[in-house]
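Interim report, section 4.2 (structural modelling).
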Amino acid sequence: MTNENNALELHHVTRSFGDFTLQDLSLTLPTGCILGLIGENGAGKSTAIRLIMNNLHADSGEISVLGLDNQSPAFSSLKEDIGVVLDEAYFPEVLDIKQVEKVMASTYTRWDSALFTDYINRFELPWKRPFKDFSRGMKMKLAITVALSHQPKLLILDEATSGLDPIVRDEILDIFAEFTRNEHHSILISSHILSDLEKICDYVAFLHKGRLLFCEEKDQLLDSYGVMACTSDQLQELPEDAVVGVERSHYGMRVLVKRSKVSSAFPVEKATMEDIILFQVKGEKNA
Amino acid sequence: MKGLLLKDLYVLVKQMRVFLFGVLIFAVIPGSNMTIFAVVYAAMMPYTALAYDERSHWDQLAGMMPYSIKDIVLSKYVLGWLFTAGAAALSIIASILESHFIPNAGSPLSGALAFCVGVITMAITLPPMFRFGVEKGRMIFILLVVVIACGSAGLLSETVQSPSSLAILPLLELALPVAAVVLSVASVWLSIRLYAKQHR
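Predicted structure of the assembly:
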C-alpha cells in the first residue's frame, strides 16, 4: 500500500544475478527527509538504486517513487522529478559545460538555466573546457549541478561524494542540506563515508551482502546503541541479548551493546555510526 | 529525444570531422558508386555514436533521465536516417548540377536508391549492436558489407553478360523503398526489445 507522505517505498524487493542476490529489501523514505544507504562494495546499493529507477527489473516486490509505482508507464515522465547522481558523471568526454546544458535543457521540461549558471559559478567550473579534462571533483560537481537544475523533488545519489576531498565534500553536503529545507524535497544517498551520512541523514539503512540489516531513524539508532570496554568476565555478566558485536584485542575487548538491555552500572559510551556498522559485521563473524 | 540527438551531434561533429568531410566529398564526386559510399558511410554514424556512448557509459546516465527505452533506441535510428538523408540529398543536388557539365554524372535516382540501401543497412545491423554492443555488432556489419559487395559484383557481371537482366532495375526501384520501410519498422521493434533485455 503506497503512502503519499513517502518519497520512496520498497516492499520485499528481490533481485537475483546468480552469484548475488539483493534479498527482501524493504525501505521507506518519508518526504522531506534524507535516507542514507550504507554498505560495503558489492552490498547491493547500486543495484537497489537501479531497481528504484526501473533500470533493472525486480524478480519480486514493489517499488513506489513519489507515490507512483515504478512499473507504471508514467514513470518515465516522473523521472523529471528525480535528480540522479551516479558514482561517475558519465557525460560524453568531448562535451563542454555549455553543450551539457543545451543537452539537458532539451531533456528536462523544467530545466532552470539561471540555477544551473549559479551552481556552475559557485563551483567555479570552467565553461569551455571539455569534460574529459575535468578532475573527479569537477566531474561530480557538474553531475550534482545537473541533478539539481531541473527542479527535482527527490535526489538519488549513488556514492556521489566518494573520492572527493573533505572540503569539496563538505561544500556538497551543505548543498544537499539546503535542498531538503524545502519540506517536499527528499534525498536517498548511498555512501561508504559514514561520517558524511552521520552528518546529514535523518534515516540510515545498512545493506550487507544483499540483505538489509536495519533501516532506522539515525538519532534513535545512535541512542539505542553504546560501546563499552570490558574484560571477558564482565562480558559474561552482560545479558546475552544485549551484546551486538565484540571486538577482541590484546588489550581487552570492546563491545557494542543495546543500551536498553544493559544496567546503568556498566560504563557505556555513546556509539558512533561507524561503531554500529562495524560491530554489526564483526559481531556476525564472531558469532 | 531532442536532447539525445543533440548530444550525438555534438559528439560526432567534434570527433568525426574528417569522416564527415569524407562523406561530403563522396557525395559530390560524380558517379553512382561514390553516392553509395557516401550514404553507407553516413549510415555508419549511429554505430559511431553508440561506440562513444559505450565509452562514456552514457546508457547508465540516460537510463536515469526521463527517456523511455523506445526514445533511446529510436534516437539512434533517427540520427542515422538524418545523416543518410543528408548525404543522399547532397548527392542528388550534386548530380543534378553536374549533369549540366559532365555526361553520365550519375542519376538523381541513384541517390534515392542509395538512401534506401543505407536505411536497409542500418535496419539489419543496428539490432545486433543494441544486443551485443558495437565491438561484436561491427562484425555483423562487416559481414553484411561483404555480402552486399559480392551480390553487387554478381549482379554487375550478370548484367554485362546478359543485358536483358537490366529489366529488373524498375523492380529494384520499387522493392528497395518498400524493403527499407518494412525492415526499418521490424528493426526498431526488435532493437527496443533487445536493448531492454540487455539493460534490464
